[in-house]
Here is the input.
Amino acid sequence: MIKKKVSIIGGGIAGMASAISLIEKGYTVEIFESKKNLGGRAGSISSNDGVIDIGQHIFLDSYKNFIYILKKLKVMDRIKINQNLKIPIIENKRKYYIQSNFRFFPFSIIFAILNYKNLSLINRLRVIYGLIKLRSFKQENKDQKVINWLFENNQNNETINKFWSIICKPAFNQDLEKISILHFTNLFETMIFKPKKSISICYWKEPFTKLIQKEFLNFLKKSNSKIFLGENINHIKEENNEIILIGNSKEYKSKNLIIATNLENAFKITKNKITEFKYIQSSIINIYFWFDRKIMTDDFIAFTNSDLQWVFSENIRNNKNQKIVISLSDAEKLLKVNNEKLIKIFENKLRNEMQINKKTKLIKSKVIRSPKATQNISSIKLNTSKKIHFIGDWTITDLPNTLESAAISGINLVKNKF
Ligand SMILES: Cc1cc2nc3c(=O)[nH]c(=O)nc-3n(C[C@H](O)[C@H](O)[C@H](O)COP(=O)(O)OP(=O)(O)OC[C@H]3O[C@@H](n4cnc5c(N)ncnc54)[C@H](O)[C@@H]3O)c2cc1C
Here is the structure.
Protein backbone atom coordinates (compact mmCIF):
# COMPACT_ATOMS: atom_id res chain seq x y z
CA MET A 1 0.00 0.00 0.00
CA ILE A 2 1.36 3.44 -0.92
CA LYS A 3 1.54 5.66 2.12
CA LYS A 4 0.19 9.20 1.81
CA LYS A 5 2.85 11.88 2.00
CA VAL A 6 2.61 15.15 3.97
CA SER A 7 5.14 17.99 3.66
CA ILE A 8 6.09 19.96 6.77
CA ILE A 9 7.94 23.29 6.79
CA GLY A 10 9.75 23.68 10.13
CA GLY A 11 11.57 21.23 12.38
CA GLY A 12 10.79 22.78 15.75
CA ILE A 13 8.68 21.07 18.42
CA ALA A 14 5.42 21.63 16.52
CA GLY A 15 6.83 20.25 13.25
CA MET A 16 8.35 17.24 15.01
CA ALA A 17 5.12 16.58 16.95
CA SER A 18 3.07 16.59 13.74
CA ALA A 19 5.63 14.37 11.97
CA ILE A 20 5.62 11.80 14.77
CA SER A 21 1.82 11.78 14.95
CA LEU A 22 1.48 11.42 11.16
CA ILE A 23 3.97 8.56 11.03
CA GLU A 24 2.09 6.87 13.86
CA LYS A 25 -1.04 7.12 11.70
CA GLY A 26 0.66 5.52 8.71
CA TYR A 27 1.69 8.59 6.69
CA THR A 28 5.18 9.44 5.46
CA VAL A 29 6.50 12.95 5.86
CA GLU A 30 8.96 15.25 4.16
CA ILE A 31 10.35 17.97 6.44
CA PHE A 32 12.04 21.21 5.33
CA GLU A 33 14.06 22.91 8.05
CA SER A 34 16.07 26.03 7.28
CA LYS A 35 18.68 25.34 9.98
CA LYS A 36 21.16 22.49 10.01
CA ASN A 37 19.67 21.14 13.22
CA LEU A 38 16.26 20.43 14.73
CA GLY A 39 14.54 21.95 17.74
CA GLY A 40 13.80 25.50 16.55
CA ARG A 41 13.65 27.90 19.49
CA ALA A 42 14.30 24.98 21.85
CA GLY A 43 17.30 23.89 19.79
CA SER A 44 21.05 24.29 20.16
CA ILE A 45 23.87 26.14 18.45
CA SER A 46 27.45 25.08 17.81
CA SER A 47 30.28 27.50 18.38
CA ASN A 48 33.83 27.58 19.74
CA ASP A 49 32.23 26.99 23.14
CA GLY A 50 30.84 23.63 22.00
CA VAL A 51 27.17 22.86 21.55
CA ILE A 52 24.86 24.86 23.81
CA ASP A 53 21.13 25.51 23.83
CA ILE A 54 19.73 28.80 22.55
CA GLY A 55 18.07 29.05 25.92
CA GLN A 56 17.55 27.15 29.12
CA HIS A 57 14.22 25.29 29.03
CA ILE A 58 12.17 23.85 31.84
CA PHE A 59 8.82 22.11 31.72
CA LEU A 60 6.40 20.36 34.04
CA ASP A 61 5.47 16.69 34.06
CA SER A 62 1.95 17.87 33.20
CA TYR A 63 3.17 18.86 29.69
CA LYS A 64 1.69 15.62 28.44
CA ASN A 65 1.85 16.34 24.70
CA PHE A 66 5.49 17.37 24.83
CA ILE A 67 6.31 14.33 26.97
CA TYR A 68 4.52 12.15 24.40
CA ILE A 69 7.14 13.23 21.83
CA LEU A 70 10.03 12.57 24.21
CA LYS A 71 8.59 9.12 24.91
CA LYS A 72 8.19 8.33 21.22
CA LEU A 73 11.85 9.28 20.72
CA LYS A 74 12.76 7.13 23.74
CA VAL A 75 14.73 9.87 25.51
CA MET A 76 12.72 10.16 28.74
CA ASP A 77 15.50 8.44 30.68
CA ARG A 78 17.76 11.38 29.80
CA ILE A 79 15.34 13.92 31.29
CA LYS A 80 15.78 15.08 34.86
CA ILE A 81 12.46 15.03 36.69
CA ASN A 82 12.32 16.51 40.18
CA GLN A 83 9.60 14.36 41.71
CA ASN A 84 9.24 16.48 44.81
CA LEU A 85 8.53 20.14 44.50
CA LYS A 86 11.66 22.08 45.54
CA ILE A 87 12.49 25.56 44.31
CA PRO A 88 15.43 27.27 46.05
CA ILE A 89 15.02 31.03 46.18
CA ILE A 90 17.65 33.58 47.17
CA GLU A 91 16.79 36.99 48.54
CA ASN A 92 19.48 39.27 49.98
CA LYS A 93 21.97 36.40 50.04
CA ARG A 94 19.64 34.19 52.13
CA LYS A 95 18.23 30.99 50.73
CA TYR A 96 14.58 29.95 51.13
CA TYR A 97 12.61 27.08 49.62
CA ILE A 98 9.22 26.54 48.08
CA GLN A 99 9.36 22.90 49.02
CA SER A 100 7.18 19.96 49.89
CA ASN A 101 7.80 16.25 50.22
CA PHE A 102 4.10 15.50 49.76
CA ARG A 103 3.33 14.01 46.36
CA PHE A 104 -0.44 14.43 46.64
CA PHE A 105 -2.20 17.37 45.10
CA PRO A 106 -3.24 19.86 46.48
CA PHE A 107 -1.32 19.21 49.73
CA SER A 108 1.97 19.24 47.84
CA ILE A 109 1.38 22.85 46.82
CA ILE A 110 -0.21 24.00 50.08
CA PHE A 111 2.68 22.66 52.16
CA ALA A 112 5.25 24.06 49.72
CA ILE A 113 3.77 27.54 50.16
CA LEU A 114 3.49 27.15 53.93
CA ASN A 115 7.21 26.27 53.98
CA TYR A 116 8.18 29.38 52.01
CA LYS A 117 9.69 31.57 54.72
CA ASN A 118 10.66 34.37 52.38
CA LEU A 119 7.03 35.47 52.97
CA SER A 120 5.46 36.27 56.33
CA LEU A 121 2.90 33.69 57.49
CA ILE A 122 -0.01 35.97 56.68
CA ASN A 123 1.32 36.45 53.15
CA ARG A 124 1.79 32.70 52.69
CA LEU A 125 -1.90 32.32 53.58
CA ARG A 126 -2.69 35.08 51.08
CA VAL A 127 -0.93 33.13 48.31
CA ILE A 128 -2.89 29.97 49.19
CA TYR A 129 -6.09 32.02 49.14
CA GLY A 130 -5.10 33.43 45.72
CA LEU A 131 -4.53 29.91 44.34
CA ILE A 132 -7.91 28.76 45.66
CA LYS A 133 -9.61 31.78 44.06
CA LEU A 134 -7.76 31.11 40.83
CA ARG A 135 -8.99 27.53 40.78
CA SER A 136 -12.61 28.59 41.02
CA PHE A 137 -12.16 31.57 38.68
CA LYS A 138 -14.82 32.15 36.02
CA GLN A 139 -13.73 34.27 33.10
CA GLU A 140 -15.90 37.33 32.79
CA ASN A 141 -13.54 39.99 31.56
CA LYS A 142 -10.99 38.58 29.12
CA ASP A 143 -9.15 41.91 28.86
CA GLN A 144 -8.42 42.12 32.57
CA LYS A 145 -4.71 42.07 33.41
CA VAL A 146 -3.33 39.61 35.94
CA ILE A 147 -1.88 42.28 38.19
CA ASN A 148 -5.35 43.80 38.75
CA TRP A 149 -6.89 40.40 39.40
CA LEU A 150 -4.19 39.66 42.00
CA PHE A 151 -4.80 42.91 43.89
CA GLU A 152 -8.55 42.31 43.75
CA ASN A 153 -7.95 38.90 45.30
CA ASN A 154 -6.10 39.87 48.43
CA GLN A 155 -2.55 39.82 47.06
CA ASN A 156 -0.09 42.60 47.89
CA ASN A 157 3.31 43.82 46.62
CA GLU A 158 5.15 41.27 48.73
CA THR A 159 3.21 38.21 47.52
CA ILE A 160 3.43 39.52 43.96
CA ASN A 161 7.19 40.13 44.02
CA LYS A 162 8.18 37.08 46.01
CA PHE A 163 5.79 34.51 44.61
CA TRP A 164 3.61 35.34 41.59
CA SER A 165 6.36 37.14 39.65
CA ILE A 166 9.03 34.47 39.98
CA ILE A 167 6.61 31.80 38.77
CA CYS A 168 4.77 33.79 36.10
CA LYS A 169 7.52 35.88 34.50
CA PRO A 170 9.45 32.90 33.05
CA ALA A 171 6.27 30.91 32.30
CA PHE A 172 4.71 33.74 30.28
CA ASN A 173 7.89 35.62 29.36
CA GLN A 174 6.06 38.77 30.35
CA ASP A 175 5.63 41.09 33.23
CA LEU A 176 2.47 40.56 35.32
CA GLU A 177 1.22 43.89 34.07
CA LYS A 178 1.04 42.53 30.52
CA ILE A 179 -0.13 38.93 31.06
CA SER A 180 -3.74 38.36 29.99
CA ILE A 181 -6.08 36.77 32.48
CA LEU A 182 -7.04 34.21 29.80
CA HIS A 183 -3.47 32.87 29.53
CA PHE A 184 -2.96 33.03 33.29
CA THR A 185 -6.03 30.98 34.20
CA ASN A 186 -5.64 28.54 31.31
CA LEU A 187 -2.01 27.83 32.15
CA PHE A 188 -2.73 27.12 35.83
CA GLU A 189 -5.79 25.08 34.88
CA THR A 190 -4.14 22.89 32.22
CA MET A 191 -0.71 22.51 33.80
CA ILE A 192 -1.49 22.35 37.52
CA PHE A 193 -5.13 22.13 38.60
CA LYS A 194 -6.46 19.69 36.00
CA PRO A 195 -3.63 17.11 36.12
CA LYS A 196 -4.03 17.14 39.94
CA LYS A 197 -0.41 16.20 40.42
CA SER A 198 2.44 17.48 42.49
CA ILE A 199 4.52 19.92 40.48
CA SER A 200 7.57 18.16 39.05
CA ILE A 201 10.03 20.47 37.35
CA CYS A 202 11.73 18.76 34.39
CA TYR A 203 14.66 19.69 32.15
CA TRP A 204 17.26 18.09 29.93
CA LYS A 205 20.87 17.99 31.04
CA GLU A 206 22.48 17.99 27.60
CA PRO A 207 21.97 20.21 24.55
CA PHE A 208 18.48 19.62 23.14
CA THR A 209 19.68 18.89 19.63
CA LYS A 210 22.01 16.20 21.01
CA LEU A 211 19.10 14.77 22.95
CA ILE A 212 16.66 14.38 20.06
CA GLN A 213 18.30 14.80 16.64
CA LYS A 214 19.68 11.29 16.13
CA GLU A 215 16.57 9.67 17.56
CA PHE A 216 14.25 11.77 15.40
CA LEU A 217 16.23 11.04 12.22
CA ASN A 218 16.03 7.31 13.00
CA PHE A 219 12.30 7.61 13.56
CA LEU A 220 11.93 9.20 10.11
CA LYS A 221 14.13 6.61 8.43
CA LYS A 222 12.03 3.72 9.72
CA SER A 223 8.94 5.13 7.99
CA ASN A 224 10.74 6.04 4.75
CA SER A 225 10.25 9.70 5.54
CA LYS A 226 12.69 12.40 4.46
CA ILE A 227 14.20 15.52 5.95
CA PHE A 228 15.94 18.41 4.21
CA LEU A 229 18.09 20.21 6.76
CA GLY A 230 19.41 23.64 5.77
CA GLU A 231 16.56 24.10 3.27
CA ASN A 232 14.69 27.39 3.63
CA ILE A 233 11.29 27.58 1.95
CA ASN A 234 10.91 31.13 0.69
CA HIS A 235 7.30 30.95 -0.39
CA ILE A 236 4.61 28.65 -1.74
CA LYS A 237 2.13 28.80 -4.58
CA GLU A 238 -0.87 26.68 -5.52
CA GLU A 239 -1.00 25.33 -9.09
CA ASN A 240 -3.21 22.66 -10.67
CA ASN A 241 -4.32 21.16 -7.42
CA GLU A 242 -0.75 21.06 -6.12
CA ILE A 243 1.26 23.19 -3.74
CA ILE A 244 4.70 24.25 -4.98
CA LEU A 245 7.28 24.96 -2.28
CA ILE A 246 9.98 27.32 -3.48
CA GLY A 247 13.20 26.52 -1.69
CA ASN A 248 16.60 28.19 -1.99
CA SER A 249 17.73 26.21 -4.98
CA LYS A 250 14.90 23.87 -5.78
CA GLU A 251 11.13 23.57 -6.02
CA TYR A 252 9.17 20.79 -4.32
CA LYS A 253 5.64 19.58 -4.99
CA SER A 254 3.19 18.74 -2.28
CA LYS A 255 -0.45 17.69 -1.98
CA ASN A 256 -0.75 18.26 1.78
CA LEU A 257 1.27 20.89 3.58
CA ILE A 258 1.80 21.77 7.23
CA ILE A 259 3.45 25.10 7.98
CA ALA A 260 5.18 24.73 11.35
CA THR A 261 7.30 27.87 11.39
CA ASN A 262 7.18 30.87 13.70
CA LEU A 263 4.39 33.37 13.02
CA GLU A 264 6.43 35.88 11.00
CA ASN A 265 7.79 33.27 8.61
CA ALA A 266 4.40 31.60 8.24
CA PHE A 267 3.10 35.00 7.19
CA LYS A 268 6.01 35.55 4.78
CA ILE A 269 5.74 32.09 3.18
CA THR A 270 1.99 32.25 2.59
CA LYS A 271 1.38 36.00 2.35
CA ASN A 272 -2.41 36.06 2.09
CA LYS A 273 -3.29 33.07 4.23
CA ILE A 274 -3.00 34.86 7.56
CA THR A 275 -5.22 37.86 7.17
CA GLU A 276 -5.34 39.35 10.59
CA PHE A 277 -3.23 39.08 13.69
CA LYS A 278 -2.35 41.12 16.73
CA TYR A 279 0.48 40.16 19.01
CA ILE A 280 3.02 41.30 21.57
CA GLN A 281 6.53 39.96 21.09
CA SER A 282 8.79 39.31 24.09
CA SER A 283 12.47 38.53 24.28
CA ILE A 284 14.69 36.28 26.37
CA ILE A 285 18.42 36.66 27.00
CA ASN A 286 20.54 33.80 28.25
CA ILE A 287 23.99 34.54 29.64
CA TYR A 288 26.33 31.57 29.95
CA PHE A 289 29.29 31.66 32.37
CA TRP A 290 31.97 29.01 32.75
CA PHE A 291 33.73 29.16 36.15
CA ASP A 292 36.88 27.29 37.11
CA ARG A 293 35.15 25.70 40.08
CA LYS A 294 31.66 24.83 41.29
CA ILE A 295 29.67 27.81 42.50
CA MET A 296 26.32 26.12 43.13
CA THR A 297 25.08 22.65 43.98
CA ASP A 298 21.40 23.27 43.20
CA ASP A 299 20.30 22.63 39.62
CA PHE A 300 18.51 25.97 39.62
CA ILE A 301 17.83 28.93 41.89
CA ALA A 302 15.25 31.69 41.54
CA PHE A 303 15.99 35.18 42.87
CA THR A 304 13.61 37.71 44.38
CA ASN A 305 14.33 41.43 44.62
CA SER A 306 17.09 40.92 42.08
CA ASP A 307 17.69 41.20 38.33
CA LEU A 308 19.08 37.67 38.23
CA GLN A 309 15.60 36.05 37.87
CA TRP A 310 16.56 32.37 37.38
CA VAL A 311 20.02 30.77 37.36
CA PHE A 312 20.66 27.19 36.19
CA SER A 313 23.77 25.09 36.63
CA GLU A 314 25.36 22.10 35.04
CA ASN A 315 26.47 19.70 37.74
CA ILE A 316 28.74 17.11 36.19
CA ARG A 317 30.32 14.79 38.70
CA ASN A 318 34.15 14.91 38.78
CA ASN A 319 34.11 18.04 36.67
CA LYS A 320 35.99 20.82 38.45
CA ASN A 321 34.57 23.59 36.27
CA GLN A 322 30.95 24.61 36.17
CA LYS A 323 28.72 26.06 33.48
CA ILE A 324 26.04 28.46 34.73
CA VAL A 325 23.26 30.10 32.74
CA ILE A 326 21.30 33.16 33.77
CA SER A 327 17.91 33.12 32.07
CA LEU A 328 16.39 36.58 31.71
CA SER A 329 12.74 36.68 30.65
CA ASP A 330 10.90 39.74 29.33
CA ALA A 331 14.34 41.16 28.53
CA GLU A 332 13.29 43.95 26.13
CA LYS A 333 15.22 46.68 27.93
CA LEU A 334 18.42 44.64 28.07
CA LEU A 335 18.46 44.17 24.29
CA LYS A 336 19.94 47.66 24.04
CA VAL A 337 22.91 46.76 26.27
CA ASN A 338 25.98 45.34 24.50
CA ASN A 339 27.34 41.89 25.34
CA GLU A 340 30.47 43.09 27.10
CA LYS A 341 28.43 45.26 29.44
CA LEU A 342 25.82 42.56 30.05
CA ILE A 343 28.53 40.10 31.03
CA LYS A 344 30.13 42.57 33.39
CA ILE A 345 26.85 43.58 35.06
CA PHE A 346 25.59 40.03 35.51
CA GLU A 347 28.91 38.54 36.58
CA ASN A 348 29.05 41.15 39.35
CA LYS A 349 25.46 40.46 40.38
CA LEU A 350 26.09 36.72 40.40
CA ARG A 351 29.28 37.09 42.46
CA ASN A 352 27.60 39.40 44.92
CA GLU A 353 24.27 37.63 45.39
CA MET A 354 25.70 34.12 45.43
CA GLN A 355 28.72 35.20 47.49
CA ILE A 356 31.20 33.67 45.09
CA ASN A 357 34.72 33.46 46.37
CA LYS A 358 37.11 35.99 44.75
CA LYS A 359 39.51 33.19 43.88
CA THR A 360 36.86 31.70 41.56
CA LYS A 361 37.86 32.61 38.03
CA LEU A 362 35.55 33.19 35.11
CA ILE A 363 36.92 31.11 32.22
CA LYS A 364 34.60 32.36 29.47
CA SER A 365 31.11 33.68 28.88
CA LYS A 366 28.55 33.93 26.11
CA VAL A 367 25.37 35.93 25.57
CA ILE A 368 22.54 34.46 23.47
CA ARG A 369 19.74 36.82 22.56
CA SER A 370 16.28 35.67 21.48
CA PRO A 371 14.51 38.93 20.64
CA LYS A 372 11.50 37.06 19.25
CA ALA A 373 11.32 34.32 21.85
CA THR A 374 7.56 34.38 22.36
CA GLN A 375 4.49 36.00 20.85
CA ASN A 376 1.39 36.64 22.87
CA ILE A 377 -1.37 36.56 20.28
CA SER A 378 -4.73 38.04 21.10
CA SER A 379 -6.43 37.47 17.77
CA ILE A 380 -5.61 35.63 14.59
CA LYS A 381 -7.51 34.72 11.46
CA LEU A 382 -6.16 31.93 9.28
CA ASN A 383 -7.53 31.43 5.78
CA THR A 384 -6.65 27.78 5.61
CA SER A 385 -7.44 25.66 2.61
CA LYS A 386 -8.02 21.96 3.15
CA LYS A 387 -4.47 21.27 1.97
CA ILE A 388 -2.54 23.87 3.97
CA HIS A 389 -2.45 23.83 7.75
CA PHE A 390 -0.70 26.06 10.28
CA ILE A 391 0.78 24.83 13.55
CA GLY A 392 3.23 26.24 16.09
CA ASP A 393 3.02 27.57 19.65
CA TRP A 394 1.48 30.83 18.32
CA THR A 395 -1.55 29.01 16.88
CA ILE A 396 -2.70 27.98 20.37
CA THR A 397 -3.99 31.41 21.32
CA ASP A 398 -5.45 30.51 24.71
CA LEU A 399 -2.09 29.40 26.17
CA PRO A 400 1.30 31.15 26.36
CA ASN A 401 4.08 30.03 23.99
CA THR A 402 5.60 26.90 25.49
CA LEU A 403 7.00 23.52 24.49
CA GLU A 404 3.58 22.16 25.37
CA SER A 405 1.55 24.57 23.23
CA ALA A 406 3.86 23.78 20.28
CA ALA A 407 3.38 20.03 20.84
CA ILE A 408 -0.41 20.40 21.29
CA SER A 409 -0.68 22.25 17.97
CA GLY A 410 1.05 19.45 16.04
CA ILE A 411 -0.65 16.53 17.77
CA ASN A 412 -4.16 18.02 17.65
CA LEU A 413 -3.91 18.92 13.98
CA VAL A 414 -3.11 15.33 13.05
CA LYS A 415 -5.81 14.00 15.38
CA ASN A 416 -8.49 16.26 13.90
CA LYS A 417 -7.57 16.70 10.24
CA PHE A 418 -5.73 13.59 9.04
C1 LIG B 1 15.37 31.40 25.02
C2 LIG B 1 14.06 30.66 25.11
C3 LIG B 1 13.71 30.03 26.29
C4 LIG B 1 12.49 29.36 26.40
N1 LIG B 1 12.19 28.71 27.54
C5 LIG B 1 11.08 27.92 27.60
C6 LIG B 1 10.84 27.12 28.73
O1 LIG B 1 11.60 27.10 29.69
N2 LIG B 1 9.73 26.32 28.71
C7 LIG B 1 8.85 26.29 27.66
O2 LIG B 1 7.88 25.52 27.71
N3 LIG B 1 9.07 27.06 26.57
C8 LIG B 1 10.16 27.87 26.50
N4 LIG B 1 10.40 28.62 25.39
C9 LIG B 1 9.41 28.60 24.29
C10 LIG B 1 9.58 27.35 23.40
O3 LIG B 1 10.93 27.21 23.01
C11 LIG B 1 8.72 27.54 22.15
O4 LIG B 1 7.38 27.78 22.54
C12 LIG B 1 8.73 26.30 21.25
O5 LIG B 1 10.02 25.77 21.08
C13 LIG B 1 8.15 26.71 19.89
O6 LIG B 1 8.18 25.63 19.00
P1 LIG B 1 7.55 25.75 17.55
O7 LIG B 1 7.81 24.47 16.86
O8 LIG B 1 6.14 26.24 17.64
O9 LIG B 1 8.35 26.94 16.83
P2 LIG B 1 9.90 27.09 16.49
O10 LIG B 1 10.73 26.51 17.56
O11 LIG B 1 10.11 28.52 16.15
O12 LIG B 1 10.10 26.19 15.18
C14 LIG B 1 9.94 26.68 13.88
C15 LIG B 1 10.98 26.01 12.99
O13 LIG B 1 10.73 26.42 11.65
C16 LIG B 1 11.96 26.69 11.00
N5 LIG B 1 11.67 27.62 9.91
C17 LIG B 1 11.21 28.90 10.02
N6 LIG B 1 11.04 29.44 8.81
C18 LIG B 1 11.38 28.47 7.88
C19 LIG B 1 11.39 28.43 6.46
N7 LIG B 1 11.01 29.48 5.73
N8 LIG B 1 11.78 27.28 5.87
C20 LIG B 1 12.18 26.21 6.59
N9 LIG B 1 12.18 26.20 7.96
C21 LIG B 1 11.78 27.32 8.60
C22 LIG B 1 12.80 27.32 12.11
O14 LIG B 1 14.18 27.26 11.84
C23 LIG B 1 12.39 26.46 13.31
O15 LIG B 1 13.22 25.33 13.44
C24 LIG B 1 11.59 29.34 25.28
C25 LIG B 1 11.95 29.98 24.09
C26 LIG B 1 13.16 30.64 23.99
C27 LIG B 1 13.52 31.33 22.71
Q: What stands out?
A: DSSP finds eleven helices and 20 strands in the chain.
